Amino acid sequence: MVRAAVLPAVGSPLEITEIDLPEPGPGQVRVRLTAAGVCHSDLSLTNGTMRVPVPAVLGHEGAGTVVSVGEGVTHVAPGDGVVLNWAPACGKCHACSLGEVWLCADALTGAGSVYAHRSDDGSDLHPGLNVAAFAEETVVAANCVLRAPEGVPLTDAALLGCAVLTGYGAVHHSARVREGETVAVFGVGGVGLATLQAARIAGASKIIAVDVSPEKEELARKAGATDYVVASETTAREIRGLTGKQGVDVAVECVGRAVTIRTAWESTRRGGRTTVVGIGGKDQQVTFNALELFHFGRTLSGCVYGNSDPATDLPVLAEHVRAGRLDLNALVTEHIALDGIPAAFDNMVAGKGGRALVVF
Hints:
The chain is built from eleven helices and 18 strands. Strand 15, helix 9 and strand 16 (299-302) form a beta-alpha-beta unit. It has helices at residues 40-47, 94-97, 154-157, 163-174, 190-201, 217-223, 235-241, 258-266, 290-296, 310-322, 341-349, and strands spanning 2-7, 15-20, 28-38, 56-57, 61-69, 81-84, 116-118, 124-125, 137-141, 145-147, 182-186, 206-211, 227-230, 248-253, 268-276, 299-302, 332-336, 355-359. The model has no long low-confidence stretch (mean pLDDT 96). Helix 4 (163-174) packs across helix 5 (190-201). By secondary structure, the protein is an alpha/beta fold. The strands form three sheets. Strands 3, 5, 6, 9, 10, 17 and 18 form a seven-stranded mixed beta sheet that branches. The chain has a six-stranded parallel beta sheet with strand order 13-12-11-14-15-16, sandwiched between helices. A five-stranded antiparallel beta sheet has the order 4-1-2-7-8, with no helix packed on it.
C-alpha cells in the first residue's frame, strides 16, 4: 500500500488515503516518487475545467526512482532516476506524423485506464493525467518515463516535466523569441517563472512580468524580469509606455482568462505575437473585431505543453541547468508533504506564490 491524493469526484476535496498498486505488467514501470510539482492543471481537473475519468490520483509533474519494470521494458531499469512524461506521443497519429508530438491525439488515452484501487473499499482508480504523481509510488506506461538528466537532483528534475518544458517551449518553440526582442509574461506562477527565465535565456532585451499580486515582484525579478506591472485596467497602456509606446514584440499569457488573453494581445506592437499557455474554461470567451485584426496584424496562437518534445528538449533544459542559466529553485516557493496539496490549491486560487513542490 502507498499513500496518495485521490480526487473522488469533480468538485470534491482531495482525500489523502492508501491505495493498492499492482506490480508492473508488460510495458509498464513502477516508480517511487522523489518529488511532484503542484500545477494549475491539477486544480483545473478538480473543478472540471479539464476532464478526466474519476476517481483519480492527480499529479503529473514529477520525478523519482524506478522500483521495477515489466516485460519488454529496456530503456530504464530498477534504480534509474526518471522524469515523468504525462503526455507521451504515440508516434502514429496524424499530428505525430507531422512532427507535432505535443498535439498527439492519443497522448491521454492512458488516463481512462484503471491503474490502482483504494485500499479501504477496493474501488477503481484512474491515473489522472496518465502518471498519478501525487502518490508515494506509481505505475505508468514505459513511454511515460524519461531518464533523468545527469547532474540535476531528482527533486529539481520534477519541475522539468511540466512547468519548465511548458515555459521554455512557449518562448523558444511557440513564440520563437529572438535576441533583442521585448517580452511580456502574464501570470507569475510556476509556468510564468519558467517563462521569464526562458525569455532571459533567449536574450530578450526587456522582460515585463505582469501579475495581480504586488508581492510577486521579487520572484519575477529573480527569474529575469526587468520590469514589473501590477495587473489593472491600464496594463496594456503601461506596457506600451515601457516600450517606447510600441508594445512588446511577444506576450506570453500563463493565466487562461479571457481578459488576460485580450490584454496580452493588446500589449503587443503591430505585428506582435501572443502565445496563450494558460488553460481557460469554455466560458472564457475572447472577442476581436475584424478591423483590428486587419489593422494590427498581430498573431495569436495556442501553446500545448510548450509545443515541446520532452525526449528532445529535456537534455537541452538539463544543459541550461548545469550551466547555471536555468535556476529551478527559483520556481519553488514552498516545499510541502502530500497532505499539503489542498492548501497549495488554495494558494493558487488566491494567486499566492510560485510552484509548491511535494517532497516525498
